[in-house]
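Quick entry, no commentary yet.
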Amino acid sequence: MGAAHFRPPPSCVTLLAGGGPRSMKELGIRQRDRHVLREGYSPAVRRFEIASIVLYTAAMLWLLVDIAPWIGSKPFLALSALMLGFLAADFTSGCVHWLADTWGTPEWPFIGKALIRPFREHHVDQKEITRHDFVETNGNNCFISLPTAAGAALLPDGTVWFFIATMTFSMCLAIFGTNQFHKWAHMDEPPSYARVLQRVNLILPPEHHAVHHTAPYVKYYCITVGWMNEALFRLRFFQTLERLVTRLTGLIPREDDIGRRAALVVAREPPPPLPKIVLTSIDLPIDLPDVTARPAVKSE
């Protein structure tokens, strides 16, 4: 890859690594040029996104027709499935985000330009997503959800299958909204209703998502609502997966995103510490009797 495909890292952006903050320049992060990445959004990718949205809409309507007759007779089961599906969407968004951030290259045919390129571009220019229209914002997520939604529509009848199908419908619907929630998190002035949802943590809040955009972009991948981020980070979920993939394949995580030198430094960083369990003390009212001073009752 020629030097024109990369841009020098700005020294003003910092990260926490090795126990303290270091600049991108000191770490040696090299990211792709945003103009080259923007050129990767070709008419073929645009047509692919439009087709994905059309097919996704058809699959979701098909699934909704299947589960609608059951919802009235099993409302509480449906509500439980909808809530679980929302959590599953947040987890799925994190997994897809981690995969696209960590592995592969925009040069890959099809997947590279359609799915990996937007994530590389986003790290170089965070505001670019705010300039995307409806198709570019949501096309990729429709493609990701399409096979799952179609598969759920083919499930047989039955209470258990209804629960799975309803959960899948909720998950795919939330995944459809994920990039829109992500876009609002980067907007200076999102719609008023989006701001309300952000404040009550029902969609991705900008302050929460800002944690991910601290270079080298190694945590807080979940971008539907972000509820799963802290737990996955504390459990070293993605860090463990990265070490496993590297051991099995020899690949270096984030090599294409931030450059080989910086990727090696980040890969050798120690994992985050496990959470400490802190037991809070309870202050008892002072007027309670001192039961510890009572003499023991002798048994006769």
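second:
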Amino acid sequence: MTKTIAIAQEVPWLGGDWFDPLEAGVRRRIRSFIEGMLEEELAAALGRGRYDRSPGAAGYRNGHRDRQLLGTFGPVAVSVPRARRSGGDGKPEEWRSKTLPAYKRLTGRAEALIAGAYLAGTNTRRVRRALSALFAGAVGKDTVSRVWRKVQSDWEAWQKRDLAGESIVRLILDGTVVKVRLDRKATSLSVLVALGVRRDGQKVLLALRNMGGESEAAWRALLDDLVTRGLGVPELLIPAFAGTSGAAGLEKALAGLWPEVPVQRCTVHKHRNLLAHAPRKLCDEVSADDTDMIYATTAREVAARRKAFLRKWRLRCKPVADSLEEAGEKLFTFLRLPPGQWRSIRTTNAIERLHEEFKRRIKTQCLLPCAETACMLFWALLASGQITLRKVDGWQTLHVEPANQQLDHAA
């Protein structure tokens, strides 16, 4: 018995005003159009049309079979022609359609639409409700999961791609924590992210790794993988040092691999460190002084305001002054480059923006099913265009190498 899926299915919350005769008419003709394509493909393969009895045919027809197909036009049942034709060894073999391959139930556009709806922030169960009017309820959570698994092959190829052709001048490094299901328990895992900036100013995602933490070994494994795949030595490193100790794991990994490359510590992370060392009643004043120092218009002004900051806060709250001194020269590396680049160098906002969008996306899911899914979902948001990366500010002067002079930090 052939099961037929109705093209037009009433959607409870849509009234008569939503009926579109043009859409309905097109969908009714979809079946005959698809079957016509399949008949033309088979006629070309056999060398003769249907009911043609001319000699020299490459095979013979063998009836039809019904197939269910789901596309952006909705669900439809089509009658697929069957045939047997001579194979390479002279023996007859079953004809296989290239237009509609075996076991194909979804068109490429439908798969892209389902994956896009999932990446936009819906979970697997909500996709069915979101696309019910288009697919007439034919898409369930299992369909979404199967579509998502097809993304895995592209993800695996991306992880192994050659980086020798990438002219990376800056390397931005940071980690984010996500909750995944391991052994039926909610477990927090660190996802390490490497973002590069090309010579033309375009930002590009280089690597993603799920790790149990942000230790030196974890970061070194990610960096070694980048080098193995052909990444050259960058001209500037911008790591996200969140702790007062400078995130020892990442700092040691960078020092061990590229000890001569200049490092710019994130000024936003250091700003938070300063506020963490200040009493609540002094936070506004510390914040204002730090902002005035970091966002001064010239290197000379930055140096003068840093001296004033240290003199003031050594007397009023010594832990705040100690926290600023702990960062040392690495907090002011941006001053060695043209002022047009300062905005994009001072912070790790480029990578923080990715973290925010990723967290917004997984907000609908309490837990991700596994550790690998976290990295794959992060990558897919970029690969699908849900998140776009633009050029950095001041990219026109990226050809200028960092100057050797250092800021006078004498207080």
